[in-house]
Description:
Elements: H1 3-13, E1 18-25, H2 29-40, E2 45-48, H3 57-60, H4 81-85, H5 96-109, E3 116-117, E4 122-128, E5 133-138, E6 143-151, E7 173-176, E8 191-195, H6 199-208, E9 214-219, E10 226-227, H7 235-243, H8 245-252, H9 273-286, H10 290-293, H11 303-320, H12 325-331, E11 345-346, H13 349-352, E12 358-362, E13 368-372, E14 375-378, E15 383-385, E16 388-391, H14 400-403, E17 406-408, H15 415-421, E18 437-439, H16 453-473, E19 478-481, H17 483-497, H18 528-540, E20 546-549
Parallel strand pairs: 1-2, 1-6, 2-3, 4-17, 6-18, 7-16, 8-9, 8-16, 9-12, 10-11
Antiparallel strand pairs: 4-5, 5-6, 13-14, 14-15, 19-20
Helix pairs in contact: 2-16, 16-18
Amino acid sequence: MTEQVKQVQKTQQNSSPLKLDALVIGAGVAGLYQLHRMREMGMNVRAYEAGSGVGGTWYWNRYPGARFDSQAEIYQYWFSEQLYKNWTPSERFPAQPETERWMNYVADELDLKKDIQFNTRISSAHYIEETGSWAIETDAGEKIEAQYLIACCGMLSAPITNRFSGQESFKGQILHTALWPKEPVDLKGKRVAVIGTGATGIQVIQTIAPDVAAMKVFVRTPQYIIPMKNPKYSQADWDKWCEKFHELKQRVSETFAGFDYDFANKPWAELSPEERLTVLEKNWEDGSLSLWLASFPEMFFDEAVSEEVSEFVRGKMRARLNDDPELCDLLIPKDYGFGTHRVPLENKYLEVYQQPNVEAVNCLKTPIDCVVPNGIKTADGKVHEVDVIILAVGFDAGSGALTRIDIRGRNNRSLKEQWGEEIRTSMGLQVHGYPNLFTTGAPLAPSAALCNMTTCLQKQVDWITECIKFSRENGQDVVEATQSFEDDWVEHHDEVANKTLVVKTDSWYMGSNVEGKPRRLLSYIGGVGNYHKKCAEIADAGYPGFDMSKRPSNQKCLAG
């Protein structure tokens, strides 16, 4: 048992809350860095993590085939050149076990674990106006009082688990990709059902297909795909990337999606059909997300361009499916454009459906009705008998991690209730009415979906840290986004989003996968570089739009 847990238990026995300057929720990419930055400021800070180790996404998502789709050279922390150079990735897109080791390497190098309480969920956080602090409670009943509450919960960390009626009756094993057990799961020789063909489902399907006795894939929404090219990295390869550290650090903060590539071609209209095809082929061959995020931005706005790019990808997919009419109809999208959904990278995913032990079930024609003791029953009355069900059915993205905590701000307002009516934030950094609550990976910022996560999360952590530092240096210790600032940001966000084809497509980007969720593009689509520029302008101007004030006079800063 760690000393900090002993301290918490001791304070609870005395019915007195543990007092902190800042509490960080989560120990993933953002949480670790936020903890580091708060400690640099001399704050009494602790992070609380539901898992038994660090990593966030890379702790929980340990399903077969889980791996990066951002290149290792840019999925990095940029505040330390030494951290970058002293860890050598084994390949361009490392798998989950390696990434989890990398996250532990970072935590150990910065000695962060001593200030992280694991196996602990934050269940509630209420703002107390009389004290200007947050009263926080854990799932074990521990009470904490903190001046600043910083939510680094992750944008894809609230998995949808009870998706189908009858799940509790299943006699076999049900596994959710986002809650995959640490212990090895033996699927060899078993009949397996996979529900869901998004990025996660695709990784699972292509990985386990060679080992299972039989696999039924329940397909509802087909996906455009890009074949991943994943070369191994030697130390010499990594040394070359290390030479570009400062160049890459600057580059990723300026591009549309926080990668090292960007839209740099001539406009679509200025190119001949042959020139356009050359650009598309080049990006396809790169084996990364560059076809989506660095070929033609017009695909997001112009339906004619979207259709041409989409047809380019469909042609690649048809060739790999040998123009099999049934598989092509089931697995190739027709009703939405390339890039308006999340685009998965894959490795021989389409070829899986040509294996004799794999069957695709068309859930548009025969939707899943329920789970029964021996399998899955579809609307046509057929029972698909299986031994294992793997749920790759997604998340309550962006907002779900926060609405699963009972967060209450001024006048006891409930964040869950507010977001149940309309999802809105102030640049994804704060929500009006919740003083000293800061957020990363929250809705209406690029980090909610449309960014290389390490790029955007670090920028948000830096902004939050500097904002807190600025307020304290100026004798203020309460920060709250104004209503007018939030209104302006929501209006701008929607204006940019509504110009795109993304808002016309049903996907988790729009909250469409969660029944009753308010429809709004969860991620800011105006570009990472533009977002960072706006954040910097606000900071340089002294944080207009963010009211700063003193806590009630009977309260003093807890430390620092």
